[in-house]
Amino acid sequence: MIIHRAFYREAALVTLGITAVLLVIVVFQGLSVFLGRAAMGEESKDVVMTLLGLQTLRKLDLLLPLALYFGILLTLGRWYRDSEMTVLAACGIGLTQLLRPVLLFALALAVVVGLGSFFFTPYASRQTDLVKHESARVPEVSRMTPGVFSESEGGKRIFYTARMDAAGDMEDVFISQLEAGKRAVVVARTGHPYIDTKTGDKFLALRDGMIYKGEPGEAKYQIMRYETYNVRLEPKRLEEPPWKIEGLTNRQLLERGDGSAVAEWHWRLAKPIIVFVLALYALVLAHTDARRGRLSNLFAAILVYLIYSNLLGLGQTLLKKGQVPPAIGLWWLHAGMLLLAAYLLHQRAHNRPLLPSPARIWRR
């Protein structure tokens, strides 16, 4: 049908544009966070782009339902403003006739969201944990940024260098570390990392500096001058990455069966269902009343999305605490939202108010 093809084409373009905008926001927000962590020495500069790509992949199954929601809303909203819906109604094509193309369009996107929810997002979460685990094994000096103090080992060791070249050679080095309850401060004019050929251990060779040992607030300090002083750079030795619940496979979630696993499983199920629920609300709320302005339906759509997303968060919390049986999960919420959408669609299709006016309720 020509109308259906026109809807698919326009809705796809608008949804694609919204997705691109949301991706740009996510990328720049994530880039600022990861660059800040790298500057503070919390992450290695070499893994910033990898972590950014994995975070974007993890967010994709959340961005697509939102993009589809507003894509359908803006597409049909334009049809209402340009009186195309009025012409279609005069030709016998009402709102219910558009239900089929809207749901088919949602189905195509729900398949992509489902693949992301059950496979791509858990994979990206596991890879994120693995990259962070490997980054934690890198010695602190490799994550240093010139001119910035970098903490490690929970603040027990602090590094600083004024300048550092590509080979790792440093100038004006400062190291503060806690040893047996006492703070030791090491300063050096220069320093460079190297690897012991016999043991394979990594060291930082410092030259022409001073060592200050003592307790803060006391006058008893040991001061030593040195020409060469080697500091061992011990990487963190972690046996295996601490896998988060989001990174577990579907089988692992079902086998685990505790509150967190049940909540995560139902959240993965919910994501493709959200696509259909939001598509129905977009069909209902796309109607534009010239007397109320173009943005009236947009505000209502944002309100519906916020309510739905907050209820989903509440449902997950109840599942984690075991206050909702696993068999019920989040289905009660989806069913309630679908019933409300069906009622609103029925009201809209028959040109009735979506909600009864207060005056009419008062007369009753």
Give a short synopsis of this structure.
With 364 residues, the protein is of the alpha+beta class.
Quaternary state of the chains = single chain
- If helices are DSSP runs of H or I spanning 4 or more residues, what is the number of helices? 9
Helicity level: 55-70%
Strand content: 15-25%
User: What characteristic shape results from the CA principal axes?
Assistant: elongated
Radius of gyration: 29 Å
**How many separate domains make up the residues?**
2
Poorly predicted sequence stretches spanning 5 or more consecutive residues = none
Main sheet attributes: strand count, strand direction, barrel closure: 6 strands, antiparallel
Following the backbone from N to C, one meets helices and strands in this order, namely HHHHEEEEEEHHHHH
Tell me the span between the first and last alpha carbons.
45 Å
Strands of the widest sheet, in order across it, are 1-2-3-4-5-6
Keywords: Cell inner membrane, Cell membrane, Membrane, Transmembrane, Transmembrane helix, Transport
Protein name: Lipopolysaccharide export system permease protein LptF
Membrane topology: Multi-pass membrane protein
Main location: membrane
Detailed description of the structure:
InterPro entries: LptF (IPR030922), LptG/LptF_permease (IPR005495). It is found in: Cell inner membrane. It is a multi-pass membrane protein. With 364 residues, the chain is of the alpha+beta class. It has two domains: 257 residues, no CATH class; 90 residues, no CATH class. Helices cover 55% and strands 17% of the residues. The chain has a six-stranded antiparallel sheet, with no helix packed on it. The longest helix is centred in the first third of the chain and has 38 residues. The mean pLDDT is 84.
